[in-house]
Design brief:
With 96 residues, the chain is of the alpha/beta class. The chain is globular. The protein binds flavin-adenine dinucleotide.
């Protein structure tokens, strides 16, 4: 399973230069392309790759953060909240 992070700042109102560093080695063709490497997207990709005959690409928005300590360190999770570099900042309507 490949994981790609090609489109920084999508929907955040911010403008960044695209970071395509994680696209090196990506094939031109996959059996399945999963858009969004969040909870459900990664569950689906994980299930699909249980079949070794199947190729799967996960496309996740944002910069390449594979080596970012703020992502890799669980204790730093709260530092990501409301941080537009990491957090989409979407809000729901008030909940009852
Ligand atoms: C602060 C917080 C704490 C939470 N705690 C819990 C908890 O303890 N237990 C629990 O069960 N749930 C918890 N939740 C809820 C849980 O995180 C969500 O319900 C779940 O992640 C939703 O999964 P999803 O796959 O629908 O969306 P997401 O996990 O949000 O995945 C969507 C993915 O798509 C990506 N994406 C969006 N647009 C594009 C695009 N154009 N191109 C490529 N990729 C794109 C996003 O970056 C994201 O990675 C919490 C949520 C928040 C905000």
């Amino acid at each position: 399973m490949e994981s790609v992070l090609p489109t920084p700042g999508v929907g955040t109102g911010t403008s960044h230069q695209a970071d395509t560093s994680s696209t090196s080695g990506v094939s031109k063709q996959y059996d399945f392309i999963v858009i969004g490497g969040g909870t459900s997207g990664l569950v689906i990709a994980n299930r699909l790759t249980e079949n070794p005959e199947v190729t799967v690409l996960v496309v996740e928005a944002g910069e390449n953060r594979k080596e970012d300590p703020q992502i890799l360190t669980p204790a730093l999770a709260s530092s990501l909240y409301d941080n537009p570099t990491y957090d989409w900042g979407f809000l729901s309507v008030p909940q009852v």
